[in-house]
């Protein structure tokens, strides 16, 4: 019983140190209510709202102690005789979470007094006392360790250039064991492969169980009405910060706006290179403001201004030709419809081939088919002198000589 | 660390020396042994001749400070203009080719007869001479592969010339631009047009290469008393006039001078023929006035119709490379001869006897003249009854004079030939022994397809150029 009291005392002492600022490296994550699917980043509610009265209740409870310390003594004695750790002390122990400082000075003093009286009344042997001292020493060491861990970290010394004196908390020096790998374990690459498969399977599970649920969110397509002639495009980077996150793009066709022909033409001229003559769609974007809403508002105002200008009759820009030089219409050759091998076409081609075959046959039979090789061969096969014609003049000249 | 051993032989010199007999070692001249070297020792040359002079090198001889002399060509270089003459020579017959018999001779009627489409006809020698004088044959055409000049009467020929001869016969003025893809036979159609002109007794004037007139190749001189200042090509016009005279001598010698030509530097009597007027001078400086006088004479009523053709139309639709005395570039239309043609083509000149003014475009050697392209596009659309395409509003360099020159012309688009025409042409080639293969439907179809569905020049390339020298 005395043992229990001594240990309780030591525990209380370790807990009664000055309250330190609790450090938290990562803020405690509040669990959001699960939302179905949203492209807007989740935001926290205001902090004042978040603070619920239940958090403060333990402090309040300790503050409102029903009885004073003197009143407690009689009960305490009674319970000690029963050789049981009194309920109050148990309550105290429960209340004194070692990482939570005790609430107030007066309370701490009351606790100390309570323990002292308890100690005085009990009769310990020398052995027990020595044991208690050892325990106390151990607790002191533990205490020092805890206080060091929860203390405000030391700042890096400015004197050392590389900060060599500072311990590197990220470096795991002790955990790395240079021992040989155990024979019964697979290699780290295999572990990696297993991890990879686990990942695959995780996504497969998602695909099998969660993706089908997305179909519940489908909505029927409703074509935009005549009033909804502007089409805005926003971009989300899934909660990541991005310079273009606030960009808004608007697309519209001058045809859809409430303008007549000449006004539409003027609007196209005003739009310049933003108007695509192939699709007849104008496209403008804005990212000069920080928020999407601001950018969208700017674009909306701009379109309104353009429409107002297009309707302005003072100058209809009739002397300025519509400029489409900014857009090159790409001609993508397609397989001609006439070239498709339909049954009719096949028949036609077959007829043509048949006809040409017949023509060739007819020509061959008539000896009219011309073969270049054959012609050349025939020419060379003829006797060399066959084509030679003796000029008549030569004969004429020869004859008088012969007569002479 | 340097080793004591030689790197190459891995032998230890120390041991070798030790093993070598001491008597031999002592014979060695101490100077011949290199103390330490990494290069392999070379033996002296075996022959004991004393021819070795200078430094001996093992590898290639290093020559510094001198340029390497290749084998000098000691033959005489071609004289000035010889290379061009060889390049531009026109060979109209080849005795190595086989003679093709049984082909009809060209007549005026054949060129307009739809029944003659697909026939190969031979050119009569008189016509060949005339065409040659008028420089209708081109060095790019393959006349030199065949025994004698023959040509194919194609559908385009009949279509074009049928319309032309009919309208000229009605004393109308035909103003046409022959256009078409590259090597589709535009110049050949121009030649056939000239042949029709010669055979129909027209006075044929031909400018074979328009770029000769604008690229500052020939001399030019300002014509006095002209506003805006015009320029003539004295030598070129003199040659052209001689060509006109010799090509059309038969007609011109029958026509008699009607007008008074008192301002001419040479005396032309009233009763002399136009042929004598054309050959009145051999002085280049008098060429333009006399040519102009001849032109005026030809425009008189009662004369034979005129055929004026020009090849390479895009060259004359730009600013020429000639410069005026004030060193400004001269517009091509300010050159007198081109002006004459352009005014005739644009319809400014009135021809009482009918005329055919034909400009042939060229695609192989031509500039991109946007104004001409647009004007021809507009003319073609107008002819087809389609909406006329507008000019590009943002192109500032349109030449108004080009649009003026091509106002109201007809555009004749030369198409590719049909398989029937290709077959008769290939049969002629095979009969000449140039195309050494059996000409049946299969080979014709193959070559015709290879030639981009019957582009004539490509057909020649696909089948003839195997044997071209």
Automatic annotation (TrEMBL), chain A:
Provenance organism: Apiospora aurea
Coiled coil: none
Protein name: Small ribosomal subunit protein mS35 mitochondrial conserved domain-containing protein
Basic and acidic residues biased stretches: 43-54
InterPro entries linked to this entry: Ribosomal_mS35_mit (IPR019349), Ribosomal_mS35_mt (IPR039848)
Annotated region (Disordered), positions in chain: 14-74
Pfam families: MRP-S28 (PF10213)
Domain of life: Eukaryota
Small ribosomal subunit protein mS35 mitochondrial conserved domain span: 220-339
Automatic annotation (TrEMBL), chain B:
Compositionally biased spans, kind Basic and acidic residues: 72-84
Keywords (A to Z) from UniProt: Mitochondrion, Ribonucleoprotein, Ribosomal protein, Transit peptide
Main location: mitochondrion
Chain residue ranges for the region called Disordered: 65-84
Any Pfam family hit: DAP3
UniProt key word Transmembrane: no
Annotated signal peptide: none
Family annotation (InterPro entries): Ribosomal_mS29
Source species, domain of life: Eukaryota
GO CC annotations, alphabetized: ribosome
Family: Belongs to the mitochondrion-specific ribosomal protein mS29 family.
Protein name: Small ribosomal subunit protein mS29
């Amino acid at each position: 019983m005395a043992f229990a009291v001594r240990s309780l005392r030591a525990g209380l002492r370790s807990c009664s140190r000055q309250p330190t600022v609790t450090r938290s490296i990562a803020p405690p994550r509040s669990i959001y209510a699960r939302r179905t699917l949203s492209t807007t980043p989740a935001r926290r509610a205001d902090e004042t709202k978040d603070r619920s009265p239940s958090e403060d209740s333990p402090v309040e409870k300790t503050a409102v102690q029903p009885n004073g310390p003197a009143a407690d003594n009689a009960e305490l004695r009674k319970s000690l005789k029963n050789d049981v750790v009194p309920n109050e002390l148990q309550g105290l122990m429960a209340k004194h979470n070692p990482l939570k400082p005790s609430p107030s000075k007066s309370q701490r003093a009351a606790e100390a007094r309570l323990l002292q009286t308890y100690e005085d009344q009990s009769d310990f042997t020398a052995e027990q006392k020595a044991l208690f001292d050892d325990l106390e020493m151990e607790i002191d060491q533990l205490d020092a360790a805890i206080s060091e861990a929860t203390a405000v970290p030391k700042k890096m010394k400015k004197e050392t250039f590389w900060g060599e004196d500072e311990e590197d908390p990220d470096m795991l020096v002790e955990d790395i064991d240079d021992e040989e790998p155990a024979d019964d374990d697979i290699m780290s690459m295999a572990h990696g492969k297993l991890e990879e498969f686990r990942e695959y399977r995780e996504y497969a599970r998602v695909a099998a169980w969660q993706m089908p649920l997305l179909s519940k969110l489908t909505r029927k397509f409703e074509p935009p009405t005549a009033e909804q002639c502007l089409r805005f495009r926003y971009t989300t980077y899934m909660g990541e910060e991005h310079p273009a996150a606030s960009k808004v793009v608007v697309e519209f066709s001058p045809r859809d706006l409430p303008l007549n022909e000449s006004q539409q033409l003027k609007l196209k001229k005003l739009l310049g290179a933003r108007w695509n003559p192939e699709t007849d769609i104008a496209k403008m974007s804005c990212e000069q403001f920080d928020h999407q809403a601001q950018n969208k508002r700017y674009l909306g105002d701009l379109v309104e201004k353009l429409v107002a200008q297009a309707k302005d009759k003072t100058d209809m820009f009739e002397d300025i030709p519509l400029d489409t030089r900014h857009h090159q219409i790409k001609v993508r050759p397609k397989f001609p419809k006439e070239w498709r091998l339909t049954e009719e076409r096949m028949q036609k081609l077959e007829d043509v081939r048949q006809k040409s075959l017949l023509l060739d046959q007819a020509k061959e039979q008539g000896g009219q088919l011309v073969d270049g090789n054959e012609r050349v061969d025939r020419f060379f096969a003829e006797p060399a002198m066959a084509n030679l014609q003796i000029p008549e003049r030569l004969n004429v000249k020869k004859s008088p000589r012969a007569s002479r | 660390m340097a080793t004591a051993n030689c790197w190459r032989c891995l032998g230890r010199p120390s041991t070798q020396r030790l093993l070598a007999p001491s008597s031999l070692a002592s014979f060695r001249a101490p100077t011949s042994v290199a103390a330490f070297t990494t290069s392999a020792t070379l033996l002296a040359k075996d022959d004991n001749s004393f021819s070795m002079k200078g430094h001996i090198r093992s590898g290639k001889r290093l020559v510094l400070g001198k340029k390497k002399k290749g084998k000098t060509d000691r033959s005489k270089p071609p004289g000035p203009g010889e290379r061009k003459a060889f390049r531009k020579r026109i060979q109209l017959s080849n005795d190595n080719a086989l003679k093709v018999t049984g082909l009809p001779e060209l007549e005026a009627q054949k060129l307009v007869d739809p029944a003659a489409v697909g026939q190969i006809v031979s050119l009569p020698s008189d016509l060949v001479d005339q065409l040659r004088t008028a420089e209708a044959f081109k060095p790019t055409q393959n006349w030199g592969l065949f025994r004698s000049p023959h040509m194919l009467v194609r559908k385009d020929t009949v279509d074009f010339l049928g319309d032309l001869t009919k309208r000229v016969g009605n004393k109308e003025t035909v103003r046409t631009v022959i256009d078409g893809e590259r090597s589709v036979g535009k110049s050949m159609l121009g030649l056939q047009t000239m042949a029709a002109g010669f055979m129909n007794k027209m006075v044929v004037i031909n400018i074979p290469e328009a770029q000769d007139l604008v690229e500052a190749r020939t001399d030019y001189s300002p014509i006095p008393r002209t506003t805006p200042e015009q320029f003539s090509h004295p030598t070129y016009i003199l040659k052209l006039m001689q060509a006109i005279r010799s090509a059309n001598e038969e007609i011109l010698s029958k026509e008699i001078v009607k007008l008074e030509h008192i301002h001419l530097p040479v005396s032309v009597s009233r009763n002399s023929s136009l042929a004598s007027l054309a050959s009145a001078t051999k002085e280049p400086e008098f060429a333009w006035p006399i040519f102009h006088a001849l032109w005026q004479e030809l425009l008189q009523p009662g004369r034979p119709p005129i055929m004026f053709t020009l090849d390479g139309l895009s060259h004359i639709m730009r600013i020429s490379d000639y410069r005026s005395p004030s060193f400004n570039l001269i517009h091509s239309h300010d050159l007198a001869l081109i002006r004459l043609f352009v005014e005739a083509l644009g319809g400014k000149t009135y021809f009482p006897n009918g005329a055919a003014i034909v400009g042939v475009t060229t695609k192989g050697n031509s500039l991109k003249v946007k104004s001409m392209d647009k004007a021809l596009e507009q003319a073609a659309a107008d002819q087809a009854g389609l909406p006329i395409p507008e000019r590009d509003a943002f192109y500032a360099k349109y030449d108004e004079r080009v649009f003026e020159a091509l106002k109201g012309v007809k555009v004749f688009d030369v198409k590719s030939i049909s398989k029937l025409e290709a077959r008769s042409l290939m049969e002629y080639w095979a009969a000449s022994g140039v195309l050494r293969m059996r000409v049946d439907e299969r080979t014709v179809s193959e070559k015709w397809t290879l030639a981009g569905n019957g582009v004539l020049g490509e057909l020649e390339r696909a089948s003839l150029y195997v044997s071209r020298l």
